[in-house]
Amino acid sequence: MVEHNIIYLPTDPPVARFVRLNVTSVSNLESQSQAFEIVIPSSPTDDSDPGEVVIQATLERTVSPNRLHLPLNVPNGDAQSLSAVGEAVWVALTWYFQRAGYQQPLTPKGNPCPESCVELVFKSDSPAACAQFATHLEELGLVEFEIQLEENNVFRPLVFASTFWQIQPEIFLPKLGAHRYLPPKPLRYTLSNGVIRHPKRPLPPTVKSPFYTRHCVSEKINSVFKLRPVDMSDLDLIHKWMNNLRVAEFWGEQGPIEHQKKFLEKCLSSQHSFAAIGSWNDLDEEENLTLWRDACFFDIYWVKEDHLARYVNDIKDWDRGVHLLVGEDWARGRSTAWLDSIVHCMVTVLSSL
What we know:
alpha+beta, Acyl_CoA_acyltransferase, Acyltransferase MbtK/IucB-like conserved domain-containing protein, Acyltransferase_MbtK/IucB-like, N-acyltransferase activity
C-alpha cells in the first residue's frame, strides 16, 4: 500500500495533510485495474481526527480514455455525502493527472498530440443520482460530456487535464477555507499615463502570507512551491540576489542596498504589477514538509500598462506577464516546476484578483 498526501493548504505554514489517498502497490494484471482508497478526515486541518470518510475507487486502464470508478453514496441527496464525493473526485483526479503515470501516446511527427483525459464512472443504486451528480460537475466546468452513438447516445463524463488544472480546488473542497472568493466586480475602464485605456485593476495580495501553493512532483523533485507578496522586510534578500553576478547580468539592479531599496519601493508602489517571492520546501521520504527556503523573485504585471507593451502587437485587456529571477543557485534546474506553477497561478488564483 502506497500512501499519498495530496493537498497542501495555502496557509503559513501550509497544512501538510488534508486527505490521504492509499494506492495498492500491485495492480490486477488481467484487468489492468488499480484499486485505491481516499480517506477524508472530518477535520480539514487535523489528521488525527478519528472521524473520516473512506471511499473505495478503481482506475481502469483497459480502455481509452482510462476510467475512474467512484462510488456515489448519496442517500436522498444528502449534502454532506455529496460533498465527500466531490472531494474524492478532486483527489482522485489530482493523483491521476500528477501521479498515476499517464503516458502520452506517440503520434506521427507534426501531428497534434491527443489531450490527456479520463472518464468518470459513478456507481450507485440510483442511476438518476449518478446522472445528476455528473451534470453538477459539468455545470462547475470540470466535466465535458461526449455522446456515444454506438451505446444508444450515452453521455460519457470526461475530464481533461487542461481543464482540471484551471479549476479552483475550493469548488470541490468546501472545507478548505483557505480562500473566499467574491463575485467579479463590474468592469470599468480607466487611463494610465493619460493615454493607455485598460480595465481598472483589482488590488494585488497585500498580506505577507502565501496566496498560492502547489505540490510539484517530477523525476527530479518532490517539493511544495509557494508564492507570497514581497514587502520591505525582504530588502536584504533582494540586495543579495541582485548582486549575484548571474542575476545582475540580466537585471542590472546591482549596487549598494540603497539602490535595491529604491527598486523595492518602486515595485511596491506600482499600479500595474506586484512582486512576489517563490519558496521551496523539499519533502522527506515520508512526504512531510521540511524547511522553507526562499529562492525566486517574480514581478507579475499587466502587459497593457507595462513598458514592454510598445514591443508587442495586439495586446488584450487581460494579458499578463512576469519578470523573474532565480536568486539561489541550489534552486536552478527547477524551471519547469516553477514556470508551470506561476502560469497556473496567473490563470487561476490571480484571475480573481
